[in-house]
Each structure stands twice: as C-alpha cells, then as structure tokens.
Amino acid sequence: MLTEEKISDLAAEPILLVMIEEYSRLPGKKHDRYWQLRIKREDKPLTDAESEEYELLIQEWEARNVERVRALIALAKKRGTTLRGVMTQLGLKEPKDEI
What we know:
The protein has one domain. It is built from five helices and no strands. The protein has helices at residues 4-10, 13-22, 28-43, 48-79, 83-90. The mean pLDDT is 88.
C-alpha cells in the first residue's frame, strides 16, 4: 500500500478518481455474498464457516476503504482542499455501514 504522499505525487487526478470509485465497495461477487450473509445473519445465526467468511469480507472492505480515503486525501491535496471538501465536491457521503 502506498502512503498518501506517494499517491499524491504519482497519481494524476483521473487516476485518483478511478481509485476512489474502485475502492468504494467490494468487487461484484464478494459484494453480493456480503449482503447474502448480512441478511441471513439478521434472521438466524451464521454457521462458523459463514461467520468466518463474513468477517473476512468485512476486513477486506475496511482495507479497501483505507485505500479509498488515502486516494481522497491525495485528491484533496491536489485540489487544495480538505478531505470533507473533496468529498463534498464529489457528492460523497461519509461511509456508514455500506459495502
């Protein structure tokens, strides 16, 4: 993983925008599986294997979100604004519990 400074130095704005989009959620099948497990968990307990899979998906999403924030910070620096400022410019909300 790159530090914010390296990302800011190396990445042009279009690349940062792609990174922000890419890291905003889990890839397709993993995203779908996360939601299957999350919905199932609301109705009944997950099996041990499902619980482990669910936790791994959450960890992956959290790691992706870290990279997303790093790209957002780099973009904010390029634009001479704050993280919140660039998020407002892009129409992004702070992540809550969505993957």
